[in-house]
Amino acid sequence: MNLFYAPDLNPDDKLFVFDKNESRHISRVLRKNIGEIVWITNGKGGLFKTKIIDNNPNKTKVEIIDYQYYEKKSPKIHIAIAPTKSNDRMEWFLEKATEIGIDEITPLLTEHSERKKINTERYNRVLVAAMKQSLQYHLPRLNPLTSWKDFIIGVKEQQRLIAYCQSKEKISNLIRPKKDTILLIGPEGGFSESEFEQAVQRDFQPVLLSENRLRTETAGIVGLTTIKLNL
Amino acid sequence: MNLFYAPDLNPDDKLFVFDKNESRHISRVLRKNIGEIVWITNGKGGLFKTKIIDNNPNKTKVEIIDYQYYEKKSPKIHIAIAPTKSNDRMEWFLEKATEIGIDEITPLLTEHSERKKINTERYNRVLVAAMKQSLQYHLPRLNPLTSWKDFIIGVKEQQRLIAYCQSKEKISNLIRPKKDTILLIGPEGGFSESEFEQAVQRDFQPVLLSENRLRTETAGIVGLTTIKLNL
């Protein structure tokens, strides 16, 4: 099954025309003909079953023949993470986190952050590709690069965890099920003492993700998988 | 902490000389001087505390001042996986699996395999780098590319799992703790019917890794993390 993405598609829409890029993909790569079925999601829980009525390789047109809404699974998982120096590693995290099923990602600007700029548009493309690949109908929410100060006063989740390699508490022993959860992952150099203290004051529990020293992006994926299993 | 790797180092050794590459790293990049401590593992559980006695940038010489043996953790985890078409994705899997703490990896040649050749030396370099990075003292065992036929008659682990997206049994509900475990991950096109049947006959239990469709390398990492948490 191939899944396409059209963020502006609404439940009431009757027709949809793909852009040039997607049209070429449908007609030239997948070689779809008139009458064949194409599945589209709007990334907001909507799955549209459509039928090709014009397979023009520049503007393939489909008729929407069925619509189904999929509720977002709860509880939600949010990871706030300092982007890695290597962009590849950060994009790998975004891809894998989406595949595994994350709800929200906040790239964090911390005192020891190695990357102080991100390309949000590019990150979003990675999320879209991974959502389509893993056949999901909700696009994870990607927040802009957020300063520690702005981040820490705005936390809303009930269950708050901060990855801390000196913690004696294994993450899997601490998670209480059925609560929206946020996990904080610091940069390679770790959070500063002051950041760590502020997090603890804001009810973040320090948790150990692994007995091994994990890279930032690995910590994110191990943390996410562990939370999903215990929530 | 920096960890170096010297596979031939033995508990009785008194001195060690680094090759040109590592010597340069120690003297030029890390700028270590005579008398400073350098940690070395032989990847077989041995951790050697050594002191620089000659910081020649071509052949840095150290004296071994302490040796400690770390038992391999049990139970063991073995993943047999069909290498992905993209070599990058397979190397990501190797790196992450090592960081998280895998014991053995078998690259599998199956009926639907997309990659029929691997560069074992290159794969091993990825494992060594990830072992050092994550501060572990056991190098995972990397088997050569193994045909399905040879693989399936040689399985030794007590607990046998095969990733199967149509299974209704979540992997976390099936794992019995404290048993050496092997997880089978097929290629993008899946195992053939005959391979799947042979696996089931050899006591492999079909398990569901995720509700989402995961890429091969993601399946490996999610499976490994889940087994580690439940073993």
What's a concise summary of this model?
The structure is a homodimer of 231-residue chains. The first copy, chain A, has 231 residues and is of the alpha/beta class. The first copy, chain A, contains 7 helices and 12 strands.
Structure commentary:
2 copies of one chain form a homodimer. With 231 residues, chain A is of the alpha/beta class. The first copy, chain A, has 2 domains: 67 residues, Ribosomal Protein L25, Chain P (Beta Barrel), CATH 2.40.240; 154 residues, SPOUT methyltransferase, trefoil knot domain (Alpha/beta knot), CATH 3.40.1280.10. In chain A, 31% of the residues lie in helices and 25% in strands. In chain A, the strands form 2 sheets. In chain A, strands 6, 7, 8, 9, 10, 11 and 12 form a 7-stranded parallel sheet that branches. A 5-stranded mixed sheet of chain A has the order 1-3-4-5-2. In chain A, helix 2 runs parallel beside helix 3 and helix 2 runs parallel beside helix 7. The model of chain A has no long low-confidence stretch (mean pLDDT 96). Chains A and B meet through helix 2 and helix 7 of A and helix 2 and helix 7 of B.
The CATH architecture assignment of the largest domain in chain A turns out to be 3-Layer(aba) Sandwich
Which structural class do the helices and strands of chain A define? Answer: alpha/beta
- Number of separate helices of chain A: 7
Number of domains of chain A: 2
